[in-house]
Sequence to fold (1019 residues):
Amino acid sequence: MKRLRQAINNSDISRFRFHFQLFAFGLLIYGGYLAIDFGSNYIPAFACPFVETRGGTCYLYPLQHQLNMPLSQLFSGRGIGLLTGFITFLLMFVLFNKAWCGFACPLGTVQDWITKLRNRFGIRYSTYSETVFSRQKNIKYVLLALLLLLSLGMSNSLFGMQKLSGDFSTSYCMICPGRTVLPLFTGDMSQLVIDFSSKTKTVLTGLGMAVTGLFFTGAFVKKRFFCLLCPMSALQYIFSKAGLLRLKKDGMKCTRCGNCYRVCDVGIREIADDLESTMIVQDDCMMCLKCVSACPEEGCLKATFLGLPVYEATEQGFFKRMGGRS
Amino acid sequence: MHTERFERVKKSTNLHFTMEADEALRKIEDFPSNPGAMGYFYDLFRSVYANGGSLTHKGTIIGTMCVQVPEELILAAGAVPFRLCNGAHAFDQAGAEFMPAKACSLARATVGMLHINRSVHKERLGMVVVPATCDQKRKAGELLREMGYNVYILEVPSSKNSEEARHYWQNSVKRFTAELQHLTGRKITKKSLGTAINLTNEARRQFRRLYNFRKISPPVVYGKDALLVSNAYFFDDKERWLQALTDLNNELELKALKGESVGNRHAPRILFTGSPPVFPHLKIPLLLEQSGAIVAADEVCSSTRMLYDAVAYDESALYDMIPSVADRYLKPCTCPFLVLNDDRRRRLKDMAGQFAIDGIVYQIFSGCHLYEMEQRTIAKTFADSGIPLLFLETDYSQEDTGQLSTRIEAFLESIKARKRRK
Amino acid sequence: MKYFCGIDIGSTATKIVLTDEEGKIAAHTTAPTGSHFHKNAVEALEALLCRQQIKRQDIGYIVSTGYGRKLFKEADETISEITANAAGARNSGEGAGTFRTIINIGGQDSKIILLDDEGHVKHFTMNDKCAAGTGRFLEMAARNLEIEVDELGDYHMKSTGVPATINSTCTVFAESEIISLMAGGHSREAIVAGIHYSIARRISRLAGKIGIEDKVFFDGGPALNRGLVASFEDELMREIVVPETPQITTAFGAAVIAQEAFAAEGEKINV
Ligand code: SF4
Ligand code: SF4
Ligand code: SF4
Ligand code: SF4
Fold:
C-alpha cells in the first residue's frame, strides 16, 4: 500500500492526464460509434450534442431546453424533469469536482493540444496583468446568468419585457465554441456557418463564429483561454465545495515558493499565496493537479477523494519530476 | 612607496587570514567521530586557504555577492559562479579602510578581500554581480566599481508580494541574462539552461537529504559540518561538491540505520538564524557545539536559504525557463531586505517544529539593521510558543569570545534545566 | 558531614563558598584573582579549608563559575555565572520568591537576569564589551576622586543638592570628565552621586530592553554601596533587595548546584 502510494506520488501526473484526456475525448466524441452513451444528458463538461457520434451530452444543452418553460409549470412534471436533470448533473459533478475540466472536457483537451502545438513551435505564451485577469474572471458568471435568463425569457416575460422569440432557443450554444469546434473532429463542418434565417440567429451564429476564431487564437497564445470565460465552469464552481474529489492545502507546510503557481495553466495565484484555506479550489481551477506535482513540500498540497489522499506532494516525487529533465 | 606599503599590508593580511582559517579548521576538526566523508571538505578548505583563497577554475568566473544571483544562468552561459561573501576578520579590517566602522562585517570583509587580492581577482573575475538588496551591499557595489571591478548591479524589488514586483524582478533577470551572454560570448540555450538546472536541482536534492538527516534525534551530524558543506558550495566545483556531499549522505544514512549518533543524546537542539556564518567565521555555531549543543537546523543565507529551493518550470523553452529561474530566487526568499517578511517567521516556526528545536540562536553582525530589526518580532513569535531565543550581536573579531561563551552556556543551561523539569 | 563548594573566579576577585548538608553557608572567603588565578584560587580554597578544619575529602562536589571557570581543573563541573547567580539568588533567603529580576554588577560586566515562576533563568542580557557601568568604572572614579571604593556609599549619602552630571559612559572619557568636574568646583559628594546615577541609568536602560518584573535583587560587590542602591531605587522605581553578602551570591549559587549535582549522582549510584 505504502509502495503504491509512493509510486503514485512519484508519477508524472501530466503524462497520465494526457492519456486520460485522449481516452475521455475518444469516449465523449466517438463513443456513439460503439453505442456508448455515458451519463446520457448530464455531463458536467462540453460533450457537445452537435457532435453526432458523441458518447454523452453537455448538461448546458438540456438545461437550456428545460428552462424554456413558463414559471407556473415549475411544480408540474416539467419542473420535475428540470430537477432530476439537475440532480443527475450534480451527482456526476460532485464525484470528480472540477477535474471534469482537467481530465474529461473535450473542449479543454483541444485547448491543451493547441498549447502543445505552440510549445512544439517554440512560440512563447502571453501573460496578462492581474487586473485584466480578475476582470475576465467575471465574464463567465455573466454568461451563465444570460444563459439562464434567456432560456427562461422565451416562455416568461421577465422584468416586464416581452417574451423572447424562439430564436433564442439554446442561445448560449449558438456562441459556444463546443458547437463549432468539436464536430470538426468527426469531419463535420456544417456548424461553421452563419444562420441568416432570422435577425437573432444571424447575430448569435455570427457571434459564434467570432468566438470560434477567438477560441483558436486565444488557446494559441494563452493556455486554457476559453476556460476562463466558460459558463460551465461558473456553474460548477458554485457547487465545488461539495465535491468528493478535493484539492487541499496545508498552509503551515507551504514555503510560498510559488512553484505551484508557476506551472498552473490558468494562473491561479492563490494556490501559492493563500495560506489559510484548506480547500483550495478556485473558480478557474480545472484540478489538473500540476500544482501538486510541482510542490516540493511533503503533504503540502494533495488531492483527496472522500478524505483519502490520492495524489500528494512529496519531496521525492518533486525531484523525480523536476530533476532529470532536459 | 605606496605599492610597497600595499604589498606589505597584503602579505600580512593574507597571513592573518591563513592563521584564522587554520584555527577555525582546527576547531571544526576537533570533535570526536567526524564522518569520514567530511575529510574531503576539511582538505578542501585547508588546501584552498593555504594559498589564500583559490580562483583556479577554468573559464570565466562570475563573482556573486549574495544568494539572490541566479547561478543557473551563469552556468548556462558557460561561466563559473563564485560566491564572494567573505567571513574573515583579517579582510574585515582591510575593508575598514572603505566602509564605516559600524558596517556589517560580511560586507566589509568582502570589500576588503577584493581590495587586498585585487591583482588576481580583477583579472580573473569577469564580473562581480551585486544584487541591490541591503544598503551595505548596494553601496559596496559602488566601491568595487571604483576599485576597477566590472560590477553589475542586479536590481531587486524590495517586496515580493505583488505581481508587479515579480515582473520587475523577472525583467531584471532577463537583462542580467543578456549581459551574461554578452560577457561570455555564449548563447544560453534551452539545452544549456536545462543542464544547468538539472545540476543545481540535483545539488539541492542532495542538500535536502543532509537537511533531513539533521532532523534525526539523537543527532547523526553536527551543524558545524553541515555549515562547512554549504560554505564549500560558495566556491567549489559543483560536480565535485555534489559527489562529495552524496558520499557524505550515504555515510550518514548508514550511520542512521545503525543508530549511531554524535554528541550528547540530550544535547539541546538549536535553530540558528540571522546574519550568515561564513567560513572562517563559524564562531557562534562552534561555541554552541563546543558547549554541548547541536545546531540542528539553520535558516541563514550561507546554508539553507542558499540551497533549499529548487527550480520548477513548465515548458521546456527559454521563455518559460528563465522566468522560472527568476521565481526561484524571489518567491521563497526570506531575507529581511524584503518588506512584509512574514514568511521568515512562518519558516522558522515550521522548522522549529520539524527539527524538534529547544532554542533559537539569532546572530546579527553589528551594523546589520535588517536582521536586528526583525529580531523582536521573531523573539515574540517564539516567546508565545515557549521556545527561548538568544540574541547575539557580534562581528568577525574573536575579542568577544569569552562573553559569548558565558551567554551561550547560560542559555544552554537554562534550556537543559527546563527540559529536566518537564 | 559533607560540604559542597562553589567557586566563582571573577575578573578581580575569586569568591569561594562552602555549604553544609542543609544548604547553609558554612564558610566563605574572597581573594584577589590576580594573574596566576589558578594558583591563587587553589591557595584560597586550601586556606579556607584549613581555617575551617575541613578535610578535602569531605567536599562532595565542586562547581566552578566565572570567567576563569574552565581553568579550575579541580572542579567536578563548570557552570555559567548566570545560572549560578540565579541559583544563588533563589536560595539566598533574602526576599526569595518576591523578586523576578536580578541585577548583578561584577568587576568587568553587568548582567540582568529575569526569572520565571520557579526561579529559573528565563531571559538575560549583559552589557557589551566596554567597562561602563561595572565595578571597574567605580574603581576608576574612586581613584580619581582620591577616596576608597567602599567610601563611595557614604559620600553619596552625605550629598545634598543636585548631583553632578556625568555624560560619558566610556571609562576613559569619564575619567577626564570627573577631573574637570572637580576643577569646576563640584563637591566630591555631588560627583559621586552623579556617577551612581549615571550607572543606574545605564543599567536600567539595558534592563528596560528585556523588561523588568517585580522587585529587583541586586548583587555583586558594588551592591554593598548604599549610594548605588539608592540610585537604582530611584531609577527603577522599584524596591530593591540586597543580600547580606552580595559579593558571594554567585559562588553560593555554584555551591547550591554542586549539592544538587551530588544528590543526582548519588541517585544514579544507588539505582
Ligand atoms: S472550463 Fe474549459 S474544460 Fe471546463 S467545461 Fe468549460 S470548456 Fe470545458
Ligand atoms: S490550481 Fe492546480 S489543479 Fe488548479 S488549475 Fe492550477 S495547477 Fe491545475
Ligand atoms: S509549491 Fe507548495 S510550497 Fe510552494 S507555494 Fe505552492 S503550495 Fe506552497
Ligand atoms: S548581514 Fe545584513 S548587512 Fe550584512 S550583508 Fe547580510 S543583510 Fe546585509
The beta strands of chain C are 3-9, 13-19, 25-32, 59-65, 77-78, 99-105, 110-115, 121-126, 215-219, 240-241. Chain C has a mean pLDDT of 87.
